[in-house]
Amino acid sequence: MFVKKGQPYYRPDDRGDKYPPVLTDKHHCLTPRCRGVVHKKREHSPYCTGCRRDMWRSKNPLKYAFGNLRRRAKQRRKAFSLTFEEYKSFAERTDYARLKGKTSLSLSIDRIDNSKGYEKTNIRAITLRENSRKSFLKFYARQTENAAYEPSAGEIAEIEAKLKD
Ligand SMILES: [Zn+2]
Predict the structure, then answer these.
(1) What is the pLDDT of residues 47-74, one digit of tens each?
(2) Are 112 and 124 in contact (CB under 8 A)?
(3) Distances from the Cα of 150 to the Cαs of 139, 144, 146, 154, 160, in angstroms?
């Protein structure tokens, strides 16, 4: 059902489909149980912005995942030169699209060389368990380093002087 501009809007009756649609001054979203209102500039679609996004997401799961990855990379200030085509080929090669997720055995994208960003040749798929183990190993190495640290008398004096003022 597409609504033309300037025409009266109807919303489904809350009591169910047996009742005729109710005339309303607001253009309500067509999704059952959705309380959203269609944006004035988006009246070519009978759905609200949220439902349109959800529909786009389920239609283009890989594009949605790619957009998320790029956004998070930007937030974390990692270089990102991966194109969607490269990402798609990676996902097909590694079966990443099917195996990604939130459990410890789900696949995640790992940057092989940590100093480099997300590029075609610097990514591989490893399980989330392995990926978090990697960061734990780094943490553990630092802890061991700290435990083995033996300051010289000069260093101790320097730190104590700093603590005084
Ligand atoms: Zn909606």
Answers:
(1) 999 999 999 999 999 999 999 999 999 9
(2) yes
(3) 19, 12, 9, 12, 15
How many Å lie between the centroid of ligand 1 and the Cα of residue 29?
A: 5
* Structure confidence by residue, pLDDT tens digits, 4-42: 556 677 777 888 889 888 887 777 788 888 888 888 787
The structure's pTM equals 0.64
- Calculate how far, in angstroms, residue 51's C-alpha sits from the geometric centre of ligand 1: 4
Q: Where are the domains of the chain?
A: 9-57, 60-134
What's the gap in Å between 102 CA and the centre of ligand 1? 27
**Cα 91 from Cα 85, distance rounded (Å):** 10
